[in-house]
Amino acid sequence: MEVSKEKLGYLGSLDLLRGLASLAVVYFHFTHGNPDFLSKDNILYITGRYGFLGVDVFFVISGFVIPYAMFRGRYHISNFWKFLAKRFTRIEPPYLVSIAMVLLLNFVSTLSPYYRGTGFSVDFTALALHFGYLNALFDYPWYNDVYWTLAIEFQYYLLIALVFPLLLNKNKMYSYLVIVLFAASGLFIDKHSLIFNYALLFVAGILMFQFRVGYISRQEFGLMLLVTLILIFVRFDKRYLIAALLPYFFIMYLDFSDKVSKFLGDISYSLYLVHIPIGGRMLNLAENFLHTELQRSIVVFVAMLLSVFAAWLFFVFVEKPALNWSKKLVYKK
After folding, report:
1. 1 domain residue, yes or no
2. Closest CA to 244 of 199, 282, 213
3. Is residue 180 part of a domain?
4. pLDDT at residue 3 above 70?
5. pLDDT at 6
6. What DSSP character marks residue 195?
7. Residue 4, pLDDT above cutoff 70
8. What DSSP letter does each residue of 107-143 carry, written as one string?
């Protein structure tokens, strides 16, 4: 198989997109997480309603970035376990530390005189299921609402590790078959906890990967992406087209790197993990003291800044070491 070797370096523009997607999710949770915090006609509430699309942007980015990194690393099916080890080393330490942080903060919160929830307790079955991202499959709650997306991502790692060789097979019929079957699953399986529910978003990213490395022509890419976008519109609605098209423009037309984008990209995963236990808890506390719309609107941004700062600390002391450990695991050539 002949593929283009041009422009196969690191895509710095995706740092900014990851950062913006993570901030969008934070904005959504801080404006809609507590239905009584902001009034329905507050401009923050109105604009924040679309922030959830940041999650879907992440799915499209993963659809592209994971096979792109595998291609650059010369992944082979014999590297299946090494690939999973790399992903586990990359995402598990921050994930596990964040679980411990959530439990600790949950306990500390119950000591406050302003706490209005139930007493602190641990459901050890639910906690154990976190280690395999199995909570949704067994209908147990997550200790942090964002963890459900990590379960979807993990399912994608398993799938892409198995089918990656077919996506670049000399006989394109194998690639087409994988794409069609995966996309079709997104039309018939709508279970929230399974990757197939979001298959079309991942497919959009995979098509961008195949075109980026030169496996499919511009005409093939254009036609298949158009069909995928139409199916996304049918399966979801027009809002999800934004989630699919934003990565397209960042991957195909933007190529830049700057300190702000690098910073936002670096902390995006940490921000995703810590914003609810840190910033969300701040908003819950502020609800007891702030009663005007202006005050509550201002504290939303203060909570976002606090979350960014906490994410930076989390990245430096937890995520970055895990990232460096992951880089030491290389595929056998």
Report:
1. no
2. 199
3. yes
4. no
5. 46
6. G
7. no
8. HHHTTSTT--SPPP---HHHHHHHTTT-TTTTT---S
Give pTM, 2 decimals.
0.95
Which of the four pLDDT bands, split at 50, 70 and 90, describes residue 7? low
Examine the pLDDT at 288 and tell me if it is beyond 70.
yes
Residue 128: C-alpha distances to residues 89, 146, 150, 265 (Å): 19, 17, 16, 30
Q: Identify whether 3 is part of a domain.
A: no
| Token pair belonging to 49 | 């309603």
Contacts with 331 (C-beta within 8 Å, 6 or more apart), sequence order? 73, 74, 75, 76, 79, 82, 83
Q: Which residues of 135-169 are buried (b: 16+ CB within 10 A; e: fewer)?
A: bbeeebebbbebbebbbbbbbbbebbbebbebbbb
Alpha carbon 103 to its chain centroid, in Å, reads 22
In terms of residue numbers, what domain contains 24?
Answer: 13-327
Q: What Rg value do the Cα atoms of the chain yield, rounded?
A: 21
Q: Which residues have C-beta within 8 Å of that of residue 231, sequence separation ≥ 6?
A: 183, 186, 187, 200
The domain total for the chain is 1
The C-alpha atoms of residue 299 and residue 279 are separated, in whole angstroms, by 10
Q: For residue 205, give both structure tokens.
A: 């990213």
pLDDT on residue 5: 44
